[in-house]
Design a protein that fits this description.
Subcellular location: Cell membrane; Membrane
Radius of gyration: 48 Å
Helix content: 55-70%
Organism: Pseudomonas machongensis
Structural class: mainly alpha
Membrane topology: Single-pass membrane protein
Family: Belongs to the TatB family.
Strand content: under 5%
Biased composition (Low complexity): 97-116
Length: 124
Amino acid sequence: MFGISFSELLLVGLVALLVLGPERLPGAARTAGLWIGRLKRSFNSIKMEVEREIGADDIRRQLHNEHILQMEQEAKRILNPQTPPAQPVNTPAASETPAPVADANAAPAAPTTTPEPHQPPRAP
């Protein structure tokens, strides 16, 4: 973590033994170990919380982006509807209409002529 080697730890232990003495050294080592353990646990918990928040932010960002994409697709669908081409209605054309059946008891009908669509109607 900090790059402390075994020789450096041995040097710190010898200095602590000379300064504190053999009577207080075990208690000081125990107290130092407890404090170091607490610091490590607090740093690890902070690190995990930050990683969790970063992960949660990524998830929130991804969900937000997906929501925006979905709204954009919905807007495109509304603004540019792709309507299928109109299906022709199955109605017979004017030339295909069956001729009316004449009633045997009815008077003969006068012949009717319909002008061609490209010619103007004639005056009587």
